[in-house]
Amino acid sequence: MVADQPHLILVDGSGYIFRAFHALPPMTRPDGVPVNAVFGFTGMLGNFLTRHAGSHIAVVFDHSRNTFRNTIYADYKAHRPEPPPELVPQFALIREATAAFGVACLELENFEADDLIAAYAKAFSAEGGKVTIVSSDKDLMQLVGPLVQLLDPIKQKPIREPEVFEKFGVTPDKVVEVQALAGDSTDNVPGVPGIGLKTAAQLIQEYGDLETLLASAEQIKQPKRRESLVNFAEQARISRRLVQLDADAPLPAPIDSLLARAPEPGRLSGFLRDQGFRSLQHRLGLDGDGATAPPTSAPRFAPPPAILMKAEPAATLDDAAPFGPYETVTDLATLERWVAEAQAAGTVAVDTETDSLDALHAKLVGVSLAIAPGRACYIPLAHGPKPGTGDMLEAAPEAPAQIPLREALSALQPMLEDPGTLKILHNAKYDLEVLGRPQAEGANSGIDVSPVDDTMLISYSMDAGRHGHGMDELSLRHLGHSPMTYDQVTGTGRARIPFAQVELEKATAYAAEDADVTLRLWRLLKPRLRTDGALATYEQVERRMIGVLKEMEEAGIRVDGVELARIGEDFSGRMTTLEQQIHELAGKPFNVGSPKQLGEILFDEMKLPGGKRGKAGAWGTDAAVLEDLSARGHALPKTVMHWRQLSKLKSTYVEGLAAQLDPRDGRVHTDFSMAITSTGRLSSTEPNLQNIPIRSEEGVRIRRAFVASPGHVLLAADYSQIELRLLAHLADVPSLREAFANDEDIHSRTASEIFKIEPGKVDREARRRAKTINFGIIYGMSAFGLAARLGIGAGEAKGIIDAYFAQYPGIRAEMERLKEEARINGFVLTPFGRKLWIDGIASKDMSRRGNAERAAINAPFQGGAAEIIKRAMVRMPKALRDAGLDAKMLLQVHDELLFEVPQGQLTATSQAVKEVMESVAELRVPLRAELGHGGNWAEAH
């Protein structure tokens, strides 16, 4: 910047407000007024003012919900929910906080904050001044120019023309042209259907602007694109008016009134004191009664003086800072210094090192913290001596110097529980479970870490199905850095040592780097949530699920060990009988569990058709092969399939459950994985309780072993046909909607309509066929697939599918729309706006592309169902508490929730659960939850 060049800083107030509100848990003043957003906003603004100099500064706010754009297009931003009730009273306090800092507040009725930012940027730069807009909002990128830049408030990095081009594929002056074509689902800007950002950029690069493109639309070669541009030309013009910022909006305050100045003496301190923000007072150096006075000879364009915060050195704010070296903290004074710095910074990445992957039994070995990129430490807590030191003639070697566990945790606890310090973790559920248990001898309770952000879930909310969400993979993908591996520090195989015996220097390099990477990922990924349309998914669902699942895992479910043993004996006996039958059918004994020996029997000796050898030369005998042979009437493969099912159930559930039964409480505690599936569904491991067969006799037997505690019953609540309801909702099929609204048997109704049978005369076979196709359609089932399921010819199956689509044309149209959406964008959206990325949708391999198309059809239904039950889960604990009920939610298995309920509260709990589950989403058809109860899980169904 030229010396003494005026510099206007315009802060997007809405961005700060919602970041603060969603980052912090509920907080109230002594008089009960909510202040979490005020607290976060005040801290962020104060922190910003210490780092950035400007001659002029203002915070710009939206005046109200409706603006002149609603006159142009009534549905503009119409789908956005009203602000949460607990946020509304904080708006005025946030403006008061801004004024207390001596910063101007700008807003104007009938205009958005973005319009005022555009108007001030235009007026200020016209006089030769530089403008910095503190926001990463893509709508403001149209303002970027030689004198105007954006500053990302999270990454503290400028956004100039190259960054705009990377985002939109055009220069800033063409951004509105691209947005007019692509639309914006966040603001309900319609755009042109079927045209995304990439296509819009290509079109604008070729034709120059929107009007030239629309005038040439008839000449475009691609038929669908040409048709959309012709039919939706006026919609595109309206969209352009919506996205174009009004740089000629009236200025609500003269530019001279925006001069940067110090806070009035005592005003800022008084405001903080009135809100009860003692930690902010200390952080701002305002523990006394008055504000620090400005220097007597401040230069005209100096940064606002008088706000004395403990700002980090500039080098630590650089995301390009090197990874290490890091500090090993082995004394209490140094730890207390790190804790104070973390609280002053307001954000800290945290990671734990333990002796086990089982969070409910793991012992803490150490904790790492990161305050800024490259600034991280490791606090060893339970490291022993290096292995191989000392001998029989010498005294046992001593452990390395480290802070006693109880003292270290006591020093960390205030910061970890401080509502004003955001803790950033990767896979937070694990660390919260470890720290939530008493780790030190004599401690009465663990540490309640809050508030938290989880980089794994931030990534998953945006990129489910796109890639994995492990820290190492995300680091390499987003930071270009490959972190140290666990094997590098502990060794492998027989040479592996426990982490507690790793040398502190090496342990620090590994553990502190994890915290450093987590912090850098958060700074990079968190701002993307809003621009990627994933903020609501993360804030309202995924982040809230952490605490819900933590409580469920800690509760566990009781297992009857005696019944389990009986089931194991029964399965063993039946397997022995089946083995004898298999040997008789084969004509000789062999190892039934050996795929190689089975293949030789089936294809070499029995000469059964359809055998295929693998790369190693052995015959394939997987489930698909055995199912095909069974369908052809061969008894041996059918009997082997039954034996395999019993063998799997016995090893996985009978023996597996017995091994995982916690002797302390007689319960098993499954681990819910939150970021594995491509559809948003949870998965269950150690043990996996989601794959127990529901309809088989053996599955029912296993569920009988899951029992209620004395004086309690198990309550099962299952969403009824939720994916079919989502199909009726998305495809908007009138007859299906009517059937669900009237609580009709949907499969009988379908059979009646596609097979032209009178409603009262649908038999079991017709209903079975209708049920198969109803569910098969959701999975993109082909005629060959339906034929195999129903045991009919492919021609007959094709006729059934054609009749189905003829009766319900909206379903075929919806399926084609989903495939097209996936091809254009690479993802499909659930009914709630969550992106589900579809791998292979553009593959040249026909088989892979076909699988991807089927995934694109199914993903919104599975993903929508997952989102609905998650929304029910995050609301459930509060609903039960508010009703004064003691029920505990124990399990989630796909569309089912399982509760343990005191017997005297069964009726009230059932009512509360049903009400929550049926009211979490508004669809075109009603949601229905079916409830059952009993002494064990099988009886509850």
Automatic annotation (TrEMBL):
The keyword Ribosomal protein does not apply. Its EC number is 2.7.7.7. Pfam families: 5_3_exonuc, 5_3_exonuc_N, DNA_pol_A, DNA_pol_A_exo1. Keywords: DNA damage, DNA repair, DNA replication, DNA-binding, DNA-directed DNA polymerase, Exonuclease, Hydrolase, Nuclease, Nucleotidyltransferase, Transferase. Residues 699-905 form the DNA-directed DNA polymerase family A palm domain. InterPro entries: 3'-5'_exonuclease_dom, 5-3_exonucl_a-hlix_arch_N, 5-3_exonuclease, 5-3_exonuclease_C_sf, DNA-dir_DNA_pol_A_CS, DNA-dir_DNA_pol_A_palm_dom, DNA/RNA_pol_sf, DNA_polI_H3TH. Residues 4-261 form the 5'-3' exonuclease domain. Residues 326-530 form the 3'-5' exonuclease domain. It catalyses: DNA(n) + a 2'-deoxyribonucleoside 5'-triphosphate = DNA(n+1) + diphosphate. The keyword Transferase applies. GO terms for molecular function: DNA-directed DNA polymerase activity. Belongs to the DNA polymerase type-A family. In addition to polymerase activity, this DNA polymerase exhibits 3'-5' and 5'-3' exonuclease activity. Single-chain monomer with multiple functions. This is DNA polymerase I. It comes from Roseomonas haemaphysalidis.
